[in-house]
Design brief:
13 strands; eight-stranded antiparallel β-sheet; 252 residues; mainly beta
C-alpha cells in the first residue's frame, strides 16, 4: 500500500512540475503616431501639430507678408522648399517654453534649418526690410559643404548656428533619409537632439553664450542669446529640403 501511495505521489509531482505555466501579461506597446498626426498619449500630454500634412494652417510669412506659397509646396505629406529665392515660413503665434520635434530631410549640398525664439524686429535691416527670419537656429545642412573650413562645426547639422557645435559623434542619417530632430527650451536651458541623442545644450543669457554671440554676425542684434517669447520658423535657403511631423508641446 505504501509503495502505491509513494508512486501516486511521484506521478502527481511529475505532472504538476511539467504543467504549462500561465503566460505572464505582456506590456502594451506604446502607440506610434503616423506622420503629421498625434497619438492619444501625445494629445493628453498637450502636444499640438504645427503642420498637419495637408494645409498651411498656423503658418504665414515673415513680418506680416503673405504666405510664401510660391516658395514652398505641400507634397506627399511634407513641407518642401521650392528652389529659388528664400522665403521663410513662420508660426502665427509665439512660444516661450516648449518641446518641439520635427523630421527633416535634405539632399547633397542641402541647407535649411528650424529657428526658434525668433523676434520679428530682428529681421529688420537698418537699410531695408528683410523677410529672412533671425533667431536661434537648429541647423539642417550637408556638412560636406563646409567641412574643413575654420569653425565649420558651428554651422554643421544640429548646431546652434554659429554659436555651438553639436557632438562630433552625432548619429546623422544619410542624404535622402529622414532625421528626427528635437529642440527643448525650458526656462533658460536649451537642448538639441538628433535621432534619439542629445547633441548639445546651453543656457540662455549666460556670459559664455553672450560672449560667443559676439563672435558671430549676430553681435549687433540686441538681445540675441537671451530669453524671450519668439516665433518658430522653417527656413528656406534656396535648395531642396523637406519637413514633416512638426509638433510642439508647451512647458510650464
Amino acid at each position: 500500500m505504501l509503495r502505491h501511495t509513494l508512486l501516486l505521489t511521484a506521478l502527481c509531482a511529475a505532472f504538476l512540475g511539467c504543467s504549462p505555466q500561465a503566460a505572464e501579461p505582456q506590456a502594451a506597446e506604446p502607440e506610434v503616431a503616423e506622420h503629421n498626426t498625434l497619438t492619444a498619449e501625445e494629445q493628453a500630454a498637450g502636444w499640438q501639430l504645427l503642420f498637419d500634412g495637408k494645409t498651411y494652417d498656423g503658418l504665414t510669412g515673415m513680418k506680416g507678408s503673405p504666405l510664401p506659397e510660391a516658395h514652398w509646396t505641400i507634397e506627399d505629406g511634407t513641407l518642401r522648399t521650392i528652389p529659388g529665392p528664400s522665403r521663410d515660413l513662420v508660426t502665427t503665434r509665439t512660444y516661450e517654453n516648449f518641446e518641439l520635434t520635427f523630421d527633416a530631410k535634405i539632399m547633397a549640398g542641402g541647407n535649411s534649418g528650424l529657428k526658434y525664439l525668433v523676434r520679428q524686429e530682428w529681421s529688420l535691416n537698418p537699410d531695408k526690410p528683410s523677410l529672412a527670419a533671425v533667431g536661434h537656429e537648429y541647423q539642417v545642412l550637408d556638412d560636406a559643404t563646409l567641412k574643413g573650413e575654420p569653425g565649420w562645426e558651428k554651422s554643421s547639422f544640429g548646431s546652434f548656428y554659429l554659436v555651438y557645435a553639436p557632438d562630433k559623434n552625432k548619429n546623422q542619417s544619410p542624404f535622402g533619409e529622414w532625421n528626427e530632430c528635437r529642440v527643448i527650451v525650458d526656462g533658460d536651458h536649451v537642448e538639441h537632439w538628433l535621432n534619439g541623442d542629445m547633441i548639445l545644450e546651453y543656457e540662455l543669457g549666460t556670459d559664455e553664450v553672450l560672449a560667443l554671440v559676439q563672435q558671430t554676425k549676430f553681435l549687433n542684434v540686441p538681445g540675441f542669446g537671451t530669453k524671450a517669447p519668439g516665433y518658430i520658423v522653417l527656413t528656406h535657403h534656396n535648395g531642396d529640403s523637406w519637413f514633416r511631423s512638426v509638433k510642439i508641446r508647451e512647458l510650464p
